[in-house]
Structures are given as C-alpha cells and as structure tokens.
Design brief:
single chain, alpha/beta, 6-stranded mixed beta sheet
C-alpha cells in the first residue's frame, strides 16, 4: 500500500515544474552540529503550506535562507523572477517617523500611489484640474474598490488612527501594521512567521476567512493549530533533519504521522531481531576475517544503527499524587475593579462572584484590554479589587504561569534553575518524577539540561519557566498565555500533561485548539465589567455566537460594503462630491487633534502658563468638528 506521506526529494524534472519557489538540496551546520542535510521541497501556486519543526531543529534557519537573510552551506533556493514575494517576520522593518498612512503608501504598489495622489488632491480644493485627474485615475484603475479593501483590513486589525506614528505604537500594533501592509500589497507568495501573534481571537478568525477567500500562496510557521487546520492544505515537517510532506490539513497530518512512525518502528523491530542474530555471529567469529565476512561486518554496523534508532516520543502519562484539596477551593465574592484615568474609568469587574469547585477546568477568553490578566492577578491576590474579596481555601496551593517569564542569574544551568523550585513531583504508588525527568519530558535532553540558561532560545526559556511552575506540584494551576512561543511538539507534550492533571485549572489563551482540548467551560470577558460563564469549550462558544448573530449587524455590514455605490448616486454636484470627500478626511484629522490635546490634559503635560491657550485651541477644534459633521450629514442626506 502506498503511503500518503513521503520524504521530499526533487528531480530535475520536478524542479522545472515548480511554479514559484524550489529549495534544492540545502544543508546547514554550525561547527560539528548538523542542523539539516540535503533538504529539498517546493512551493507551487495556490498552495497554503504550514512548516512544522521542533524549536532548535533549523526551522528559522530555513526560513531565513528562503528569504535571503542566510546562506546554505550547500544547495540553493530558486525563485521565479516575476514572482512578487513578501515576508512577515517577528521583527518589523517600519520607519519610526512615518505615520500608519504614510507607512502604507511607502510601497511600490501603483494603485496605492493613485490613491495617495487622490488623497492629496482632496487637500487642495482650489486645483480642480489635479482633482479631476486624480478622480479619473481612481476610476480607470478601479482604485475605489482597492481603497475599500485596504481600509477594511486596517479596521479589522484595529489600525484606524492613520495619523499615529510608528514610534508611538506598541509591539503588537507594529506587528499588525506589518501584516496589514503585506496584505494590502497582495504578493503572489506570502511567507509568514507566526502570523497570529499579537492578534486577538476576532482578528485571527477574520484572517482565516481572508486567506480562505483570497487567491494567495502561503508558506507559514505557526503554532496556532486551529488556524493551521482551517487555512493550510499541505504540511511540510522537518523531523530529525529530514523533510516529510503531507497533502492535507493538521488533522490529516496527525493521522499520517502516526502511521509513519508506526511503520518506521516496525522496520526497527525487524532490524532489532536481525541484530540479535548478527551479534551472535560476530561474537563467534575468529580474529582472522575473510573478505566475505568483512562485508557482513559492515552490514552488521548498519543494522545496529537502525536497531538503535527507535523514536522516543515525549508522551506524558502521569498519575500525579497532588496535595490534598479540601472542600473549600477559592471563592470570589462581589468583586469590582476599575482603572481610573483622569478622563474616564475602565471597568474590569462589576459585582463578580464565583465559587470554584474541585477539578474545574476554566478557559478565559475576550478581546485584548478587557481585563483577563487583571482578573488573574486579583484571583492570585497580587492585585487588590476595589471592593469584594477573594477567599482561598487552607489546602490550596496556587501555581501561576505569567507572561513575564523567569529572570535567571548569570552562569546558571537549566537543571539548577528548576531545582530551586523543587526536586520532584510525587506520583501514586510511591513513585516520583524527578526534576531531570520532567525536563526530559518537556524536550530538554540530558545534555541540554547542563547548558547555561543564557544559551536558550525564547521558546526554550518559556518551556523551562513552565517546568518551574509544574515542579512545585500546585493543586490550583493558573496559566496566562502558556502557548506563546512554544512549538507544536511542545504544545502536544503540555496538553498531555494537563489532561492528566487532577487539580483545578484556569487558562487564558488565544490558542483555540488548546482551549478546546483542555477546558470544559469558559469565562467570556465582554468588556465594561461583563463576564459571562459559558458551559462549553471554544468551538461550542463560536457555534453559539454564529447562530445568534444579530440580523442588524449583518445589515450594517451589507451597508458598509455598498458605500461607493451610494456615494456616486445622483444628488451631489461635482463640487459637492469633492467637498464630501474632503470633509471626511478633515473630520478624521480634527478628531485626532482633539484626542491628542485631551490626552495632554489627562496626563498633566500642559504647563500652567499654557492651560488657557490649550483650552481655547481645544474649543476651536470642537467647534470646527461640529460644523463639519453637520455639513457631512447634510451632504449625506442628499445622496440617499
């Protein structure tokens, strides 16, 4: 029977048939350490490929070689000349002094240049000839639709303040802007490194739908298996220096990988049986060897290598002897919490009460900024509520994995770090799992355990931090975004551990696959202090939300998509059309100026001698804004 997976190799004939890009027999070593050798695969038009590998196995190096940031020791990468390729990395290449709008227009895209000229023409109402030319160019190149699409992308990625400078943006905003620029420019081949990082669940689901609809070729590294499942139609895996290709999504990959490993282990079993026989023959032979027996000796060592190559899977099957948990776990009584900037209050919790039960597994979801991490800090009593109280049972031992990580001392080794927190986890029947064994289960082999911590990658540091929390054997485990920076292999190990975990579990995560597998009900943070207790996992919640989506929302969406059709209806003169376009832009600018001055007042940045002048300036802006909004509504009514 033919396998549905195969080790990828390229013949010359296959290379010629490659549409976009081919990786041909590349190798890379660092000193004596060989990352990979003779690796080959191709990327064809319309493929949506996920690239999977353990941290430290050469995944990032291959991505860098493809993008020209690194050179292979041998082999080459061939890219078709006419292909437009874009790369979304973990590090942005944005210019600090540019605004969001300027960053978008700073590309070679001709349609974007036309839109930029049109926006500038709106700013100069006296030059009717320039405006007419820009207007005609918009029509000729169908730029109206393109403008609508890129504004929708910015809206979905919450980048609506077009005047904000890059230097004033958070890391997450910069990552979203880099993603927006790439999507707006619509390359033939898009290479993505963790595209869902810094996106909330709503953004991730929009991006999934976007990739499903767009004719775009993708090659991505992602730990988001739900995203991978819904977007990708092929998976390439780098495993022990070899490339394996699977023509299907993530579920298909898991099934076929299991079959492949079973097949490999069956071959190893045969080799082990043969090895026993050949070993007996080797021991019987006299020192004087014939040429024929020399050949058999060479075969013996090959058989030995295969027999000793059985894969060690890091499957965690534990019966943890957790510290006894009494009848009272944790009770939250009428909790309220708000943050009070001088201008307005942001409510996180409002009279929230909940009594945790033994063995509960709760997931926490909600948009960024709704207070999920604040809730965890109140739960662990590292932050006090404005009112209400948290009562923790006498037998409860909390383990709290935060996003801050660990701060090791210089010169510390991996094994020393974990032993500071505990030597072992007790199991049932008097057994234990030692600190070293726990590290091994989380992919730190014996050699790696004695490496200095400063040599670890970001993902490896996260793994180590996770182990320091688990080794303390808590009976109430709180995990704040535990899947960030973990590769898929580590995620499977963590899930296996948590499925065996008998205590209470509270998880904040954007990883929907992880949440579906681990939790059985959700706290949904809606904002403004509203927290809903939903009886199901993330997929159950999405199905519920989709089935109850208000029809009014669908109507609004439809209305937004028809904005240009409405705008060009009879009713406005040529000059009024120009005025309408100009007013929209002026209103945005005035809103931005108003927001900046209000922020200066709220942060106390206005000196005493300038308060009156700033107040007068703000009043003029507000008055002008009101006048322009009134005129905008007047013109809008003419188009209806």
């Amino acid at each position: 029977m033919q396998n549905d997976w195969h080790i990828a190799t390229l013949s010359n004939c296959q290379i010629k048939r490659m549409n976009y890009l081919s990786v041909e027999n590349i190798s890379k070593s660092y000193g004596e350490r060989v990352l990979f050798d003779n690796v080959s695969f191709g990327i064809n038009k319309d493929q949506k490929i996920a690239f999977i590998a353990k941290n430290g196995s050469g995944k990032t190096t291959i991505m860098n070689i493809i993008n020209g940031f690194d050179e292979p020791d041998t082999g080459q990468v061939v890219i078709r000349k006419e292909i437009k390729m874009a790369f979304l990395s973990q590090n942005n290449n944005l210019q600090d002094e540019l605004t969001i709008e300027e960053s978008i227009f700073a590309s070679d895209n001709e349609v974007l240049k036309i839109i930029e000229r049109y926006e500038k023409a709106l700013e100069n109402p006296n030059d009717e000839e320039a405006y007419q030319k820009a207007f005609d160019d918009m029509d000729r190149h169908n730029a109206w639709d393109f403008e609508t699409q890129f504004k929708q992308i910015l809206y979905k990625l919450k980048l609506e303040d077009l005047k904000m400078k890059v230097k004033n943006m958070s890391g997450g905003q910069k990552k979203r802007l880099s993603l927006a620029i790439i999507l707006i420019n619509k390359p033939d081949l898009l290479i993505l490194d963790e595209p869902t990082n810094h996106l909330d669940l709503e953004m991730i689901e929009w991006l999934e739908d976007y990739f499903a609809k767009e004719n775009i070729t993708l090659f991505m590294v992602t730990h988001d298996r739900f995203f991978l499942e819904r977007v990708c139609n092929e998976i390439i895996e780098l495993d022990n220096g070899k490339i394996y290709q699977y023509k299907g999504n993530y579920s298909y990959y898991l099934q076929k990988k299991e079959e492949r490993i079973a097949s490999e282990n069956a071959s190893i079993d045969k080799a082990q049986n043969l090895f026993v026989k050949e070993l007996a023959w080797m021991r019987r032979q006299p020192k004087a060897r014939t040429t024929k027996s020399k050949s058999r000796q060479d075969d013996f060592y090959k058989i030995k290598a295969v027999a000793e190559s059985r894969r060690k899977e890091n499957v965690v099957e534990l019966e943890i002897n957790m510290e006894r948990m009494g009848s009272k776990v944790i009770e939250m009584v009428k909790l309220s919490k708000s943050f009070h900037p001088e201008t307005s209050a942001k409510t996180i919790l409002k009279d929230f009460s909940y009594s945790f039960q033994r063995g509960e597994r709760i997931g926490i979801i909600g948009k960024n900024g709704t207070g999920k991490s604040t809730f965890l800090n109140i739960l662990t009593q590292t932050l006090q509520p404005d009112s209400g109280k948290v009562i923790i049972g006498d037998t409860i031992k909390i383990g709290y994995y935060t996003q801050s990580g660990i701060n090791p001392k210089p010169g510390q080794k991996v094994i020393d770090i974990i032993k500071e927190y505990g030597e072992y986890i007790p199991l049932t029947k008097g057994k234990i799992i030692s600190a070293s064994q726990l590290l091994e289960r989380f992919l730190f082999d014996a050699k790696k355990q004695y490496d200095f911590v400063e040599k670890l990658s970001g993902g490896e540091l996260k793994r180590l931090y996770l182990c320091t929390v688990l080794i303390q054997n808590p009976n109430f485990l709180i995990l704040d975004e535990p899947t960030n920076d973990l590769d898929i292999v580590t995620l499977n190990v963590l899930e296996s551990f948590l499925l065996d975990y008998p205590g209470c579990l509270v998880v904040v995560s954007h990883d929907r696959y992880f949440m579906d597998k681990i939790v059985d009900h959700l706290f949904v943070f809606r904002g403004e202090g509203e927290v809903e207790d939903f009886p199901g996992n993330y997929s159950d919640f999405r199905a519920y939300e989709d089935s109850t989506e208000p029809k009014a929302l669908q109507a609004v969406s439809s209305e937004k998509s028809n904005w240009k059709e409405k705008q060009t209806k009879a009713g406005l003169t040529f000059n009024e059309q120009k005025e309408f376009q100009k007013i929209e832009k002026e209103i945005k600018d005035l809103e931005y100026q108003k927001k900046q001055i209000e922020q200066e007042f709220s942060e106390g940045k206005v000196s005493d001698d300038k308060i009156e002048a700033k107040a007068n300036e703000l009043q003029k802006i507000i008055q002008s804004l009101e006048e322009k909004e009134e005129r905008w509504f007047e013109l809008s009514s003419k188009m209806e």
